[in-house]
Amino acid sequence: MSDFLIIGGGVIGMMTALQLADAGQQVTLVDRGECGKEASWAGGGIVSPLYPWRYDAAISQLSRWSEGVYPSLAFRLLEETGIDPEYRQRGLLYLNVDDADSALCWARQLGKPLERVGADFVRDKEPGVAMAGDSALWMPTLGSVRNPRLAKALKARLTAMPQVTLREQCEVSGFIRKDGQVEGVVSSQGPLIAGRIVVCGGAWTAQLLAQLKVQLPVRPVKGQMIAYQAPKGLVQRVVLKDGRYIIPRADGLLLVGSTLEEAGFDKTTDAAALASLKHSAEAILPALATCPVAHQWAGLRPGSPAGIPFIGALQEWPNVYINAGHYRNGLVLAPASTHLLADQLLGREPLIDPAPYQPTPERLIQV
């Protein structure tokens, strides 16, 4: 029997397993498919909310801590696995921001480096970018990570740890209950028993918890993205305009995203999204009009009220914990949210006040 059973092998689930294994715990991690191949793979990898000043303080607290962890985490994984998550800290240019004054006020309050810059500055940083207006915002400390490689590195590290049992293609279909307690789960690979269970199922979390009569307000929100294969160096840093972004990779791949669609669990791509994303990309970087689109794909974000995740134990099932509902910021918030949950699981002093994230009856759907 494991100390902990984690359901869901995305970045949240894998980072939770890593932190518990680092603390000497026996962990079983299960995923219905392959680890890191759902929302963790499908996102862009920006290590910040897109417009951080527009978010609730609960999200800002997690994101500020997480941003500082990524450089050392990427280095650790590279050293331990030989897989480079490609953490890049080249900053972000915000074009066409209609609430710049609010952004600058937010930055001053938190001590974040954010400044208003002119067209000459933008041309010097990114000569190919088309300006919108005569000013922009510049955040020099923003980083990004190549999320599929981050997931690959996390999986490789967990596979090498003797405290961790990794079970892929293992779908959980129910919970094993006895005397009012949850003892384990029913899975496609047989019953799995553990002292405590952590549900990190992303957009699928609510479906699973419904079997415990828990109504979690987490739903799938579809996001489509495209990638251009462009000449290396066409753009060097993340550029954001009107809610759409371009993210450069070291090999010249440029990611463009993303749509927001209420489409249930549908992950198909379509021509309308392709055209919309191409239009946004070429409005930011006109040279992309001559570059081929190499890929188009879709993922499912775990949408939640105000994007505030649920992190903590269920009151009616105190040995069942949740870490889900990060919406567009799963990768952004993963280091902090998994550390916060590990603090609760291991009885440590919490990283930050856990109260805003608890799955209390007030935050759950009342039926």
TrEMBL record:
Its EC number is 1.4.3.19. GO terms for molecular function: flavin adenine dinucleotide binding; glycine oxidase activity. InterPro entries: FAD-dep_OxRdtase (IPR006076), FAD/NAD-bd_sf (IPR036188), Gly_oxidase_ThiO (IPR012727). The keyword Repressor does not apply. PANTHER family: GLYCINE OXIDASE, SARCOSINE DEHYDROGENASE-RELATED. GO terms for biological process: thiamine biosynthetic process; thiamine diphosphate biosynthetic process. Keywords: Oxidoreductase, Thiamine biosynthesis. It is an enzyme of class 1 (oxidoreductase). Residues 3-343 form the FAD dependent oxidoreductase domain. It comes from Vreelandella glaciei. SUPFAM superfamilies: FAD-linked reductases, C-terminal domain, FAD/NAD(P)-binding domain. Pfam families: DAO (PF01266). GO terms for cellular component: cytoplasm. This is Glycine oxidase ThiO. Pathway: Cofactor biosynthesis; thiamine diphosphate biosynthesis.
